[in-house]
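Same chain as my last thread, 170 residues:
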Amino acid sequence: MINRKSIVGVLVCVTFIFGLAGVSLAAWGAKELDTEKIAVNLVREAARGGYGIVTTPELKGWIDQKKSMLIVDTMPYADSYVKQHIPGAVSMLFPIPEMKTLDDKTKAALEKLLGPDKDRLIVFYCGFVKCTRSHNGAMWAVKLGYKNVYRHPGGIKAWDEADYPVGKVK
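reply #2:
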């Protein structure tokens, strides 16, 4: 049986939902095209690279669960704009443009960094979603036969915005 309290609760929920929808509709604009472009580009990069995607909260959960993994920061530690990193991350610099080839020296360095276990959980990240350094790292790890490879697209910017702990670059 529906009582007055239930009806009021439903009306409050419906009003709240439509209120949110109104705010969302008011926020529509040219920025959605930018978001769509970034999202589609990310999906296409991941498909080309053959790797998975991990969100900032998911990665934090993996760290909190003490999952055995290698986290690779693909940004230049020495640059002045890179002042922090995800705790425990190791560094290997990758360029921003998509790498069509991998020279022998870089291949050897990447294989040494990633180790012999092809099933190892490996996460690559860079600065933010539009940065493709992490795409290059993840893509080449997959091409080298690693099977459990992820890209953290939000990078250090999303990590920092979530107020998760950061390590300082030494």
